[in-house]
Amino acid sequence: MKRSPDLLRLADAVLLPGFAGTTAPDWVRRRLADGLAGVVLFSRNVDTPAQLAALTSALRAENPDILIGIDEEAGEVTRLEARTGSSRPGNYALGVVDDVELTERVARDIGRDLRTAGVNIDFAPAADVNSNPDNPVIGLRAFGADPLLVARHTAAWIRGLQSTGVAACAKHFPGHGDTSVDSHHGVPRVTASRAELAEVELLPFRVAIDEGVRSIMTGHLLVTAYDEELPATLSPRVLTGLLREELGFDGLIVTDGIEMAAVAGRYGLGGASAMALAAGADAVCVGGENADERAHEHIRDAVADAVTEGGLSEERLADAAARVRALTAWQAQAPPPDGRGDEIGLLAARRAVRVTLRRAGALPLAGAPHVVELAPETNLAIDKGMPWGAGEPLGTLLPGTTVARLRQGDVHNGVAGTVLSRAADRPLVIVVRDAHRHPWQLDLLERLLAARPDGVVVEMGLPGRTDLGAVHIATHGAARVCGQAAAEVLAGLG
Question: What number is the average pLDDT over the span 36-56?
Fold first, then answer.
């Protein structure tokens, strides 16, 4: 059997490629007009709200019935605000506050922006239970480590977002929280028993399904209780047996980025895409560096070849394409969201701040401080250049504030002395991110505090030790508004 034009069109109808640039390339527009399912957008495609709306309008002009997806989790993983830092905190901060109405309002606020921008599916929320504090890829993206808390906030987030006519996508099924490997680079293993999975990892997904979530994204995870050989994205036992048949999910199953090493590293882009569809996935996301027409053609042809060679049935492919169309039909009939955004983000960030005061009179700061921010390498889900920190907003509140940012490569034997000399006779504020996961941060932090026990610590990642510094401030996130909330506390305004 040859690749017929109809078969190639059917293969295109389940693919969501990425592309470079802030305008639609000719190849994307041409393929959308010929039946491509849609696209996935990244921060490289987003400049301003007006530009994004023009981009999605141009894409939809080729075919009104397409999916336009984006990873807008808020907090650390934002595409809409990657250039400025997020105006809304991420999941972990919302879990700390534990007010489901607040979570719903934040998600509704995100949905309004996405609907206005022309996006109809948001690859969020992360429904992972972050039961491993050393997890390199989830962390603050989860609502927390308690499955019941994660479940109720996952449901609230879905309610808020989908009330605006934007489809939610709970991820990373069946749960990426109890892992120590980033699936961008390798294959994470989840070794919990089926009973343990049901009690922890699967609980938020069950609740999401009950809430009517329109889509679920697969995780590139080896879940040994169900399949000891194939990652969940490629496993019929996980996608069809567990998600479809056992949990009863009837919506759209979307893959995480198929180019990630956990799946493409062994099976290639085309092979992994065809295997995912055969396993039960309905749409394949292609992002990363594989954002050109050649990569797209390779994947489309591999999917078509899998049909002609018997590895993927045409019936399964047609079923997947029908589920894509069903989701766009749902969004097309959704009424526009009510009202305007209520700027809930800063309020949520303020409510998430936790202060441990260990020395009386340490707050507010007595004058303009010297702020040193310790910046770790972030995972690939987080934009490298995204603004974060407490120093800049503190400088607005306390003019004369100075800021130094150090990465691991900047830390040498003399760096503590340099920091201390710059902070002489001034308050010292030390900003860290996930200090418990980075020995170089913790070591420098302890050296500075040994010389300056009056130093103030601001933890903008997962809080480990709160006994460090005269004051320890945990923001539970590194979004722009989290830095603003911390600055207000330091300046005596919070």
Answer: 96
- 408 and 325 in a common domain: no
Q: Is 218 left (phi over 0), alpha (psi -120 to 50) or beta?
A: beta
Q: Distance between CA 388 and CA 366 in Å, rounded?
A: 24
Compute and round to an integer the Cα radius of gyration of the chain. Answer: 23
Q: Which residues contact 461 (CB under 8 A, 6 or more apart)?
A: 139, 140, 432, 433, 434, 435, 437, 478
Q: Are residues 299 and 168 in the same domain?
A: yes
List b or e across 7-37, with b for residues whose CB sees 16 or more CB atoms inside 10 angstroms: bbbbbbbbbbbbbeeeebeebbbebbeebbb
Average pLDDT for 147-155: 97
| Total structural domains within the chain | 2
**434 noted as active-site residue:** no
**Pair (121, 254) in one structural domain:** yes
- End-of-domain residue from the set 274, 303, 332: 332
Name the average pLDDT for the chain. Answer: 93
pLDDT tens digit string along 307-362? 999 999 999 999 999 999 999 999 888 888 776 656 899 999 999 999 999 898 89
- 256 an active-site residue? yes
**Containing H/E element for 429?**
strand 428-432
Identify the three-state secondary structure at position 222: strand
Omega cis (within 30) before 174 = yes
- Cα separation, 38 vs 332, whole angstroms: 14
What residue type is 409 in one-letter code? G
Segment 185-232, tens digit of pLDDT: 567 788 899 999 999 999 999 999 999 999 999 999 999 999 999 999
| pTM flag (> 0.85) | yes
Q: Say if residue 199 is in the same domain as residue 157.
A: yes
The CATH number of the domain where 412 resides is what? 3.40.50
CATH of the domain at 146: 3.20.20.300
Q: Which domain covers residue 318, as residue numbers?
A: 5-332
pLDDT digits (tens, 9 = 90+) for 245-292: 999 999 999 999 999 888 888 999 999 999 999 999 999 999 866 678
**Terminal CA-to-CA distance of the chain, rounded, Å?**
69
Indicate whether 241 and 375 sit together in one domain: no
The answer to whether residue 345 is domain-embedded is no
The residue annotated as part of the active site, out of 122, 256, 305, 434, is 256
